[in-house]
TrEMBL record:
Keyword field: Hydrolase
Superkingdom, taxonomy of origin: Eukaryota
An MF annotation (GO) of this entry: hydrolase activity
Pfam families in the cross-refs: Lipase_GDSL_2 (PF13472)
Protein name: SGNH hydrolase-type esterase domain-containing protein
Domain (SGNH hydrolase-type esterase) ranges: 12-195
Keyword Ligase: no
Amino acid sequence: MSSTSYVDAIVLFGDSLTQTCASGSLYQRMAQHYERRLDVVNRGFSGYNTRWALPVFKRVIRSHQNQSIRLLTLWLGANDSVNQGESQHVPLEEYKANLRQFIQLVTDPKSDNYLKDVRVILITPPPVIGKFRPDRDTSNTQLYAQACLAVAEELSLPAVDMYTAILQAAGGDTDDQLSPYFYDGLHLTSEGYQVLFDRIMSVIEQQHPDLKGVEIPLAVPDWSDVARSHAE
């Protein structure tokens, strides 16, 4: 897929945890970090599980055929892991198979959605505060987080274990310990997104250092350089 755009992109793909653009969200933090260097594209779809998101994912990737996607974050599982019987529930093995298909779509040269230079980071679902979310159980969410990590290891991809990261940041798993990181038992506060952003930056630092913000030149020159060139 050749690029005709003057600036490359980062695509954040997922559910409502990705969708929000509020101050302190993943999107806001990434957009600020990469401003004028890479487009940060938010493709979060509230309520979606991996089954429903797959056909949307294909459309998203095709829509960027003229722009090189340098980094793709894939953050799904919070809805797949709802209690069995809920409409969003996806069985664990299907969840794993769907994650593999997402990755295959962008990494297989034979795929119509192949992205030659993309780097992929998988993100596990975070824990939940059960008393606020009767349709969910954090022990079940943990199984999906572990499954996401297993797929990442199987495919030799980096992953951010948000389930463990939040527990570590909170210092435990009680409702009181977790409450600063969630505003409704499922969706993250700014403090929760700070944990995620720091983990993503750590993965980039260790495994994809060329994607560090300071390593990427501005997409267009700084105004002072333009002024200087016109003065010479």
